[in-house]
Design a protein that fits this description.
Four copies of one chain form a homotetramer. In chain A, 24% of the residues lie in helices and 35% in strands. Chain A has 133 residues and is of the alpha+beta class. A five-stranded antiparallel β-sheet of chain A has the order 1-4-5-6-3. A two-stranded antiparallel ribbon of chain A has the order 2-7. Chains in contact: A-B, A-C, A-D, B-C, B-D, C-D. Strand 3 (55-62) of chain C pairs antiparallel with strand 3 (55-62) of chain D, so a sheet runs across the interface.
Chain lengths: 133, 133, 133, 133
């Protein structure tokens, strides 16, 4: 599991004075990128080698609000890594108020740069598989 | 059912040359606001009367990519309206390429402006209930 | 001059209960795209023909706040169209409270898809020039 | 001068494969918040004490593109701190490719939480003034 830290910006906050719900998916993306980097997968390099991993499903449950200027921890891990699907899960916690604020997941497929669905190539698959929880 | 039309902006597009996945939730929000307006619920007025309807769950499945400058239709309807939960569903279609691109839902609860969970008051409940599909 | 209409979304609003300042630049972009479309320039097509018009300077003055759910008019026109620079100006007005809320401009250059700075090709230049105020 | 570090996210990138121009203003905001924190001004606390410092002018010049996954440094300093206006300036640099990518400024006024323009109160003014370059 990887913990990504992110500070809540003014731009993230909405009229209810809490973080706007779609912003969580940007934090998930940033957390996912760092998780992959720690496993040895630089996502930029993966794309340069011709494999894209678009989000094909995204989900979030919002339990307690997140406020301006809070430092958050996004706990992130690979739930399952198959040849055609990758599922990553996320938990959102505050650093001071450590209660769980939200959890969610994203599901990814593998595409060529031309947009064709493919099976994950061996090196990519092996790394993702090893890191699976 | 209500059809909300939205043009895909440059700002919505990501590095894969398709709309970034979190943007769909902003479209859902805009579509939901217009849906409520057509049923007689001006969401701004609802909030001024002391009831907020925050998103407590959000989900989207992405089937086919959405491209820059496309005109989209977000087909939106109230799936279920209870005293404590409201579920709204969305389908995303292109106006030219009319295939379904994505679908999703949001679940909302009812809060006082002070942040207390409440049951939907009668007038609000009745309108939402009537419009339920 | 072209008037682009846009409804202020929940996602646009920040903690001060007014539209977040960077969002104006997204509205400017949407307004600019429609302005160009009316002059006969479909920006997507321009890009497909190998010319990009990136923003090289952006400016906005915020005079009066913009609120949730307001319908805005973005009055947009080409201030000057040269071979190497295009300057577009914007004024933001409410439809109900019609006072000016903000004004701004963006400056654009012309790039090949490979990222080389170029002079605007004749057809593009002629159209932009004609529409200059 | 304060250096704020930020990683460029996928969500920041647009169709030209470079960071979208309005995103710079979100980075400026995050950098400004940290700059103020280092001078002893927690902006959240400033707001809780009844003073808001909204952006009344924003400007950015884009010199060289910023790419996905780059680590940026936003060099930030208070250019001038008066009783009625605060001007903060920003320079954007890459950590690997250290050339300047952009620079900009924001101008702020001082408002009560009720929205009235006020002169900066002494403690706030003194801190900002001391930190002025």
């Amino acid at each position: 599991m990887f913990e990504y830290r992110v500070r809540v910006r003014y731009a993230d906050i909405d009229r209810m004075n809490v973080a706007y719900h779609s912003r969580y998916f940007e934090w998930f993306e940033a957390a996912r990128t760092e998780l992959l980097r720690r496993t040895g997968l630089d996502y930029k390099t993966v794309e340069q080698q011709g494999i894209m991993m678009p989000v094909i499903e995204a989900h979030c449950r919002y339990m307690r609000p997140v406020h301006y200027d809070e430092m958050l921890q996004i706990r992130t891990f690979i739930k399952s890594a198959g040849r055609t699907r990758l599922r990553i899960e996320y938990g959102v916690y505050g650093e001071e108020d450590t209660r769980k604020r939200a959890d969610g997941y994203t599901v990814h497929c593998f595409l060529t740069s031309g947009g064709q669905v493919v099976r994950a190539p061996d090196p990519l698959y092996d790394i993702l598989r090893t890191d699976q929880k």
